[in-house]
Amino acid sequence: MKKWITLNEPWMFSVQGYDMGTMAPGRISVVVNDPHRSLNTGATEVYTVSHHLLLAHAAAVKLYKEKYQSCQGGQIGITLVSHWFEPYSDSEDDQNATKRSLDFMLGWLVFFYIYQIQKYFLDS
Known about the structure:
The chain is mainly alpha-helical. The protein contains three helices and four strands, in the order βαββαβα. The strands form two sheets. The protein has a two-stranded parallel sheet with strand order 1-4. Strands 2-3 form a two-stranded parallel ribbon.
């Protein structure tokens, strides 16, 4: 029986935890006059958190493949989840808006995963 280990949803953790404040640690990236929330004016924190989540995932993959996969026979992967967008019409503007939305919500994680994770493995 194969075992699966996945890093599920770095976007949800980073955006909801470090931008919207709806998940732990409850940080928000805009200044809100609310004494029950911590304040952070730097929206770049979401990207920093996601960057380190993906680097941690790469390190876990490398460790698992080198040390445990041969004896456990498992597989390791990642799940990248995003909102999905459909164009309102067949117009070129709506088609382009849909592509931009998907790039914004998912593309930055996919880009990092494809290019940076490969670089991490080649440099290690």
